[in-house]
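Obj: model holo form, ligand = phenylalanine.
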Amino acid sequence: MVASSPSGQAKWSSKTAFVLAATGSAVGLGNLWRFPTEAGTNGGGAFVLLYILCVVLIAAPLLLSETLIGRHGQRSTIGSAVHLARQSGASPAWSAMAVLGLIANTLILSFYCVVAGWVVYFIGTSGMGLFEAVSGGNALGGAYPAQSPDSIREMMPALFANPGLLVGMQSIFVILTVVIVARGVKGGIEAAAVWLMPAFFFLLIGITLYAAMTGDFARAVNFLFSPDFSRVTEPGVMSSALGQAFFSLSLGGGAMIAYGAYASRDTNLGSTSGTIAFADTAVAIIAGLAIFPIVFSVGLQPDAGPTLMFQTLPTAFHLMPGGAIVAFAFFVLAFFAALTSSVSLLEISVGWITEKFGVSRSAAAWGMGLIIFALGILSALSFNILADQRPIPFIPGFENAGWFDAFDGITSKLFLPLSGLITALFIGWVADKKIVNAETGLTGGALSMWRFLVAWLCPLAVTAILVLGLFPQLLG
Ligand code: PHE
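Output (holo structure tokens):
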């Protein structure tokens, strides 16, 4: 018996729509918030170097593997993986990568909506700041004109100390995500990507030029591109870089299988995967080149962690000429990026539920939205009421992680790479070579290179980094 029939499966309107939607999934808070956070706390250049290596050698080949599973299956993520396994005469248990992916992506979406809620809040505060600046006749002044730097720095802690506000902001974002996904692949997800992604790129280029002209660009370039080699070999930095590559490219058995399933047969998956991986990496680096010059120019530090974007940056905008406009534009940009990613995270489970249980898309989206909202409350409250809880102290490296850090760390450092490992073994060794090779659109040397990376390098490197990440003492 095969998994349910693919008839009626939705399709993107064009190859461009697929590339925009998939790039929209990849480009998100992972690039704007997580990448600078991780680069800032893991030594800058060392992390960036490892990150780029992970993208080129591991993540990009896996991106092609995932999109091809989806395109070949034309079903939900799990349905497509089962389908390819059966056609290859292999056990349907290989779909474990998609089962793991569905769980991981649901957990990711829960805390993702919390962070996106912070973005919504800062759109509000920076919007009010812009209004004050304009009505005070000084539109080209700094952000938050009526506030002192200290009170700007206090905005984030004050938000964190207010559970009702955090959950309220989170709920706004969950609802927006659900509404878009409920409208369907073409009418919702594609429409959002086609409008929001060009707007995103436009704002990003504007803000980067602003940072280059007004900020300490040279120091940012130095910070991001001159690696401290003593940190390159740290297991913690390696597993952070790998986790970031998976997170940022939306890998790990979820979004890219789901979106690949809506791609038409004449889309060349090899070249589109390359485009998506390149665009995502470029955005991460450009975001670093937009954020760090501003941070450095006012003498702030790059290693603030998750508050970099919400505390360090607003304080910097306050001191910069034109900061009022740029601060508002920056948070709107982050919001657009977050929304085109969150819809892909939700589509994974919604696609599967509608296929498996025959319920309507809108019922599945609202139902999952509720679960994700409830799970997300744990992350939101881990900054206040539940601050003392340590949900997974038994996993090495997570002894001190609260709910938020646990969800974030366990998904990107364990679940996504583990799912990627299963995908690499499945595509590299188990799945029917003829089907797989034909789906890639690659030929000759490019095909052999890709096969080598997926079959050998990905499994070995991911296993090594997973093991070292969990047991750093192995390195002595
Ligand atoms: N890639 C997205 C980002 O960078 C997050 C994401 C992860 C989306 C996994 C889908 C699946 O923000």
